[in-house]
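Dear colleague,

Following up on yesterday's call, I've attached the two folding results inline so they're easy to grep. Please treat them as preliminary; we haven't cross-checked anything against experimental data yet. The first protein's sequence and structure tokens come first.
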Amino acid sequence: MADQLTVAVLGTGIMGAGMARNLCRAGHDVRVWNRTPAKAEPLAADGAHVAGTPAEAVTGADVVLTMLYDGPAALEVMEAAGPALRPGAFWLQSTTAGVEAVASMADLARQQGLVFIDAPVLGTKAPAESGELMVLAAGPEEAHAPLAPVLDAIGRHTVWLGEDAASGPATRLKLVCNSWVLVVNHGTAEALSLAKGLGVDPQHFLEAISGPLDCGYMRTKSAAILNDDYAPSFSVTTAGKDARLIVQAGADAGVRMDLAAAGAERFHRAEAQGHGDEDMAASYFASFDN
């Protein structure tokens, strides 16, 4: 397979748009589709063909990359793509979908004659736009080399986690990583909300924890809160979905995820307050009644 591939990107939200742009910059023939067309149309300026339907997007594609809201959404869209999918094409599934959904997607891939790759990514808007994502991948070894031009375009490094994509080893690791990310996000939001409630200068808090207690991601989220800048790199609504997937995965494995469950509730409150489309740092507002 040539280095320049025909790649369909289904889902061009915060993450998918950046990934599609980097694929265009790498010289691939990129077709994009999004349920809300306005989110896909700007990619035409980058050289992407904007498709009206999933089937149009995947026609002739060597690789189909899905970056949709959740597992059911990915399944629905790939089922809609249906007959237009080329047998033997690679399905690079990057949605944070949950373990059960990955198994269902692998079944659909078998039915359609696709090579299924479980490939969620670590990173948010900025690394997606700069091609600096960490790709967690599982799938047959013979897929590694053909997919390298695509993976190299969207990420700085790919970690292959075995050949059994259907069991979701990459998705399992993604959920573990996200469980930590969400804890840091909520911990930052709660500490700063408590500082406000107690009349503590937040800069004194940040100075006091410099050293072993410090954390770069905490600094990023604290800056968002203190600057009242909630431009989304990872939205409250999507983070809440991931939190629920983490809780469910833990329950299925006999592990209580108390912090993830409490965090899911914080996201739910922030969303109910109207912050669903804002960055997940807006869980800060869940500490207050209004």
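Below is the second protein, in the same order (sequence, then structure):
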Amino acid sequence: MRFDPELAEIRFGCGLSPLHVPPSDAEMLLAGLRAPDVSARDWPIPGFEGALADARAYSSARRARKHAIDTSLFEARDKDLKQHRALMRDHQALWFTRRLLRCVTTPHGFRERLTLFWADHFTAQGKIAAFRYAATPYVETSIRPNIAGRFEDLLIAAVISPLMLHYLDQHRSTGPNSRRAKRVARRQDRQVGLNENLAREVLELHTLGVDGPYTQADVRQLAELFTGMIYDIKTGFKFAPGWAEPGGETVLGQDYGVETTGLDAITQALRDFARHPATAQHLAHKLAVHFTGDTPDPALVAHLAARYWDSSGDLIEVYTALLEHPAAWQPNLDNVKPPFAYLASACRALAVPPEALTQLTRPQVNRFFLRPMQRMGQRWESSNGPDGWSETDGDWITPQALAERLRWCMTVPAHILPQMPAPLNALKSALGGLTTAQLRFVATAAETEREGVGLILASPAFQRR
């Protein structure tokens, strides 16, 4: 294997930047994961407590409007509710901009890439207005701090997050023989029941994989084990014994909830799933696809799975295995950048000044980034399901998506840059030594600097990593 600094920054980081020297070796990439998180320090985003604060304020304003007793009071409360909605949209724009700035300015691009990867692996989104913009704070609390530890700790942090419990309806799941179910049955005022969503996704998406060695009976038993995990909008996560199915459960042949009960039994089950050989294989394949291509080298997948298994899911060891394998360094740029990664790498290559982004208003963030991303196929914090965004290249290069990428390249940089760079300088900043004679000709033949820069950013070479 021959380490290529520029290829490393493109494939494993956020793209080349004229303001940052690419990593000199694989150890430098890994050292960035162990170093202080300067990007989070420079561009702070509140943890999930921030999302809960927004949710509490919004819910309170909504209740106040609902209980308004006359027209004038309703109008006043309605105005207050609209102000809370606007504040939450302001927060979304601010948090998006700071996540973008982390990718644009970071000296440790590998950290940002892995945060995005694991956030997608553990997709969780708000399904009600109060939690509509809670995904970024969820990532800040549950994902980002755990990407360089053991997978089991990352798994537990994601699964017991209030947003995950909300997204997969776990907060409504009740053990069929629980005290709560019996109480509701006596009153006969409503129905409660078991929900299998979280249990199914933990096995199918988060750990063993869709072809993993589990059955519907395992899903059912795990769903019963998970009962009792709920959240309160005032306090966040809580375990409610009255909601939990009494007795033990058996999942993948292992008994839980007999000697160890409650949340301890749940976390023990999650640790066992994280240490399962099927989980090693599933995560190895997914990492290989994400960083190398839709059809990864089987030897690379096997190497990653073996390192995961040997290290009991130590993610730093798995990343080390990824960076040391020759298949990770094949020179062709095959993977298409998803819209967020594409726009972030464009801003990074153009060295867009931070103040140019921090000064954008919410309508400008929508106009320059969020709406274009949606037209490119990626609505921010709104993937189609719990399996997250597609890793298949063809899903990102539809005619409509490519047309939007070209439109963005030709228009938006001129709005956010104080001065357009010379095309040849932009080409060097964007692709370094990976450029071609054809691209150099395109850069010099364009009629204006704006068109030259746009054609560089629209080129297939820049759109891949």
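For the second protein, one point worth flagging: DSSP finds 24 helices and four strands in the chain.

Best wishes,
A.L.
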